[in-house]
Structure formats: C-alpha cells, structure tokens
Amino acid sequence: MARATDLPIYRAAYDLLQLLAKLTQQYPRGYRQGLAREVFAEAQAVVVGVFRANTTTDKAPILETLREHLETLKLLLRLSKDLHLISPGQFGSTVELTDAIGKQASGWLNYARNRA
After folding, report:
1. Which homologous superfamily does the CATH classification assign to the domain defined by 4-115?
2. Least crowded by CB within 10 Å, which of 64, 74, 75, 116?
C-alpha cells in the first residue's frame, strides 16, 4: 500500500486545502467565523478522508463520505463566489482541484466496490 501522501488524490486535496487556507483569510470579518470556517473544515475532512481510505481495507464507506464532504465544499465555494468573497478566477482554481479529487475518488470507489 502506498503512503497516503504519495497519492495523486492526496496531493490534489492538500493543494486545495492550502489554497483555501489563503482564500478564506481574505473573507470579510463577518464571514470568517461562519462560512470561511465551514469551507476550511470541509477541505480538511476531504484530506483526512483520503488518508483514512488509504489505511483501511473497507474503503467504500469512507470514500462515499469523502465525496459528500467534497460536494458540500463545492456548494460552499459556489456560495462564496456568488457572495463575491472569492473572484471567478479563484473559484475556477478551486473547481479544477475539486473536479480532479472527485474523479479520482469516484475511480477509487468503483475499484473498491469491484474488489469487494
């Protein structure tokens, strides 16, 4: 089994977490305690989900939860863009990473289900 930190999905999730750490610091004060904290927490949950899925034998339930966190994160990021808390370019960067993570998680989930 590869170390989680060596996986492409982990690197993409970690890159997203780093990007969101920077972006959420720029949110206005009124949004930092609520929306920014929620965005960052969901991004952390995605990274932790990748690590947990890599270290367990029954990957499917963890990967399904990871995908739920990813969808929630996408919703929060769309809201952030619509509220003009992040620019369309910044939103585009997050979409690229969330799409890459989602594709890899779906492939990993399909593989895990077929092996079971």
Report:
1. 23S rRNA-intervening sequence (1.20.1440.60)
2. 116
